[in-house]
């Protein structure tokens, strides 16, 4: 089963903190809020923690990482659920250690210092069993294979493998894609109960292409169909000319909803090919479950 050799797939994504101000005991003005790229709000459990400045710093960095443009202090305060004064002091400290920089009157964006974080990603490593199984599936299918988890309304890619003959790949570990634009998103949401789905899925759905599903009722119907079928298919929702098929993965002791996906060219899309990929994906998912992937909780 080797089709679409050398092609590539892209998941578009919505593009030692020191003392002083970061030791502030100032409380936030409201409950901290984390937003998914779909616009949904995910309230944090951090009310029981006693380091609001550290939490603010983390949320500022995540918010800037997900924003395609610089953000002013007022917007950062609103997005992170912190007061403007705390946000201002945190930004000054982050600027001092080269993690953020001012864009003049346009606000703040990430600075070169964050590249040290990207360099550290390789030190985390991937569980050997996961790497082996993803590599074998990629070689068998001749396609890029992604392992992802549900993070709010986004799918977060935490591991990937691509065939040797792939000319280029711009899918990367850490990429996010709205759940309504991916097969992984549908199959992972299908693992939730109705109450959880209503909480996670925003009223207004984002789009990445003209084929992205933006009608909430239609999207929820496809999620329900994925639950019945045990797998999900996305046709050009993330990028035109590409399809993806995904299955859920059960990892004992792993708290997040996880899934496995293979992507292919629409030129190869046919019921029999999808069935072949589904069979291969299901086999790999069962192997991951039996392997009791050690270290998966860190992905």
From TrEMBL:
Pfam entry (one): IclR_C
One GO MF term: DNA binding
Swiss-Prot/TrEMBL keywords: DNA-binding, Transcription, Transcription regulation
PROSITE patterns per the UniProt record, alphabetical: ICLR_ED
Domain IclR-ED: 106-294
Single GO BP term: negative regulation of DNA-templated transcription
UniProt KW DNA-binding keyword: yes
SUPFAM superfamilies: GAF domain-like, Winged helix' DNA-binding domain
Protein name: IclR family transcriptional regulator
Organism: Microbacterium esteraromaticum
Species classification: Bacteria, Bacillati, Actinomycetota, Actinomycetes, Micrococcales
């Amino acid at each position: 089963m080797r089709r679409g050799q050398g092609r590539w797939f892209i998941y578009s994504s919505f593009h030692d903190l020191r003392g002083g101000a970061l030791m502030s005991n100032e409380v936030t003005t409201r409950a901290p809020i984390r937003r998914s790229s779909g616009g949904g709000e995910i309230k944090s459990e951090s009310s029981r923690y006693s380091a609001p400045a550290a939490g603010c710093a983390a949320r500022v960095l995540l918010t800037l990482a997900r924003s395609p443009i610089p953000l002013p202090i007022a917007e950062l305060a609103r997005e992170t659920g912190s007061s403007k004064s705390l946000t201002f002091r945190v930004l000054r400290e982050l600027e001092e250690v080269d993690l953020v920089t001012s864009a003049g009157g346009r606000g703040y964006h990430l600075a070169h210092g964050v590249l040290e974080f990207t360099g550290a990603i390789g030190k985390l490593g991937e569980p050997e069993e996961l790497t082996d199984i993803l590599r074998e599936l990629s070689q068998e299918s001749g396609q890029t294979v992604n392992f992802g988890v549900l993070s709010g309304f986004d799918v977060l890619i935490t591991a990937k493998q691509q065939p040797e003959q792939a000319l280029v790949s711009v899918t990367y570990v850490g990429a996010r894609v709205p759940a309504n634009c991916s097969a992984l998103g549908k199959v992972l949401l299908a693992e939730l109960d109705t109450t959880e789905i209503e909480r996670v899925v925003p009223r207004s759905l984002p789009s990445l292409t003209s084929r992205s599903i933006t009608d909430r009722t239609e999207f929820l119907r496809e999620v329900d169909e994925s639950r019945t079928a045990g797998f999900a298919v996305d046709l050009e929702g993330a990028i035109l000319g590409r399809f993806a098929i995904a299955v859920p993965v059960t990892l004992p002791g792993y708290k997040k909803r996880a899934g496995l996906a293979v992507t292919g060219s629409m030129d190869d899309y046919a019921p029999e090919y999808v069935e072949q990929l589904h069979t291969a994906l299901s086999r790999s998912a069962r192997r991951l479950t039996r392997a009791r992937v050690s270290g998966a909780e860190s992905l």
